[in-house]
């Protein structure tokens, strides 16, 4: 007996009758389901278009953090240099993972606002670009939603970096308060809670300067540098364990209106700002926080 005959025989045994087409009720039900599905898909696709820069941003941070971990693996667990200041990464006394100082003047040494070599060309700049051997493209250092520019000789140029590194991580890093209740981590084994300690984040265009993001968990409500909010009011963070996540800011003081081409006042105290507490806890990598 061939397969078709077998199927027909089984169908007749079970009493199931074959029929073709659909009833009007079935067609209406199918149309309703298709309409709802199309509506859901349209909403989902619209959301995807809106959040595409966020996904690219997270991918950038993932690449940077992978390179950061690879550097530590190749250096017996020692974390990459993370000094701060206008000369960071530009000389032997101030090595840093990225070099230079960003502002909106275009007049900083070595053209820090536009010089991608200070991010990836370690052979050319031996006191910076330490992740260059692991991530050769400068693209991951800039969030696609960061539209900040600098004007040089009458021409506008995109700035090259929107990321900074947690000041509680890295060789030659420092705390804001001295002494700090929270230890600096200069090597990977010193990180007590990798999943709760951010490594790299996007910093606001009017706050970013050197490659260090300063927090002060020793002073309640104190916000030194400002995180970015490029993705529907959320900031993007990578953590020491390698995962990446977004965090939505709840207090308007964390995300004031950005004035293009102007720097904002830093080191402010905002009583009651829960965003500051979140930043402080995850900068210090503390499981519990006062």
Overview of the structural elements:
This protein is of the alpha+beta class and 290 residues long. The protein has one domain (51-284). It is built from four helices and nine strands, in the order H-H-H-E-E-E-E-E-E-E-E-E-H. It has helices spanning 3-14, 24-74, 117-120, 274-284; strands at residues 149-152, 155-158, 163-166, 198-202, 212-213, 222-223, 234-239, 244-248, 268-269. A five-stranded mixed β-sheet has the order 5-3-4-7-8, covered by helices on one side. The protein has a two-stranded antiparallel sheet with strand order 1-2. 39% of the residues are buried.
Task: Give the SSE map.
Blueprint (H helix, E strand, L loop, with lengths): L2 H12 L9 H51 L42 H4 L28 E4 L2 E4 L4 E4 L31 E5 L9 E2 L8 E2 L10 E6 L4 E5 L19 E2 L4 H11 L6
Parallel strand pairs: 3-5
Antiparallel strand pairs: 1-2, 3-4, 4-7, 6-9, 7-8
Task: Please give a quick description of this structure.
With 290 residues, this protein is α+β, with helices and mostly antiparallel strands.
Percent range of helical residues: 25-40%
Helix vs. strand class: alpha+beta
The DSSP helix count reads 4
Number of strands: 9
Q: Compute the separation of the termini in Å.
A: 78 Å
Shape call: globular
The largest sheet is: 5 strands, mixed
Q: Low-confidence parts, pLDDT < 50 over ≥5 residues? A: 2-19, 37-50
**How would you write the strand order of the largest sheet?**
5-3-4-7-8
How confident is the prediction overall: mean pLDDT? Answer: 88
| Total count of domains | 1
């Amino acid at each position: 007996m061939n397969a078709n005959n077998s199927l027909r025989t089984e169908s007749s045994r079970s009493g199931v009758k074959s029929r073709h087409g659909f009833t009007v009720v079935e067609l209406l039900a199918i149309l309703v389901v298709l309409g709802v599905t199309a509506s859901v898909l349209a909403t989902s696709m619209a959301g995807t278009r809106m959040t595409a820069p966020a996904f690219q941003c997270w991918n950038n941070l993932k690449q940077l953090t992978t390179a950061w971990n690879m550097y530590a693996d190749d250096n017996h667990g020692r974390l990459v240099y993370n000094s701060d200041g206008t000369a960071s990464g530009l000389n032997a006394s101030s090595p840093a993972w990225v070099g230079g100082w960003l502002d909106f003047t275009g007049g900083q040494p070595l053209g820090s606002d536009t010089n991608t070599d200070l991010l990836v060309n370690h052979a050319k700049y031996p006191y910076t670009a330490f992740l260059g051997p692991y991530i050769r493209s400068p693209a991951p250092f800039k969030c696609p939603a960061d539209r900040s520019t600098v004007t040089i000789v009458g021409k506008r140029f995109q700035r090259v970096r929107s990321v900074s590194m947690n000041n509680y991580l890295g060789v030659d890093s420092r705390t804001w308060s001295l002494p700090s209740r929270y230890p600096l981590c200069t090597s990977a084994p010193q990180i007590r809670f990798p999943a709760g300690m951010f490594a790299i984040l996007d910093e606001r265009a009017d706050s970013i300067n050197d490659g260090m993001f300063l927090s002060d968990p020793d002073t309640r409500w104190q916000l030194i540098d400002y995180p970015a909010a490029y993705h529907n009011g959320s900031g993007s963070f990578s953590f020491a364990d390698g995962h990446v996540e977004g965090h939505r800011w709840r207090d308007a003081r964390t995300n004031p209106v950005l004035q293009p081409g102007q720097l904002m006042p830093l080191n402010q105290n905002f009583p009651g700002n829960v965003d500051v507490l979140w930043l402080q806890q995850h900068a210090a990598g503390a499981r519990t926080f006062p």
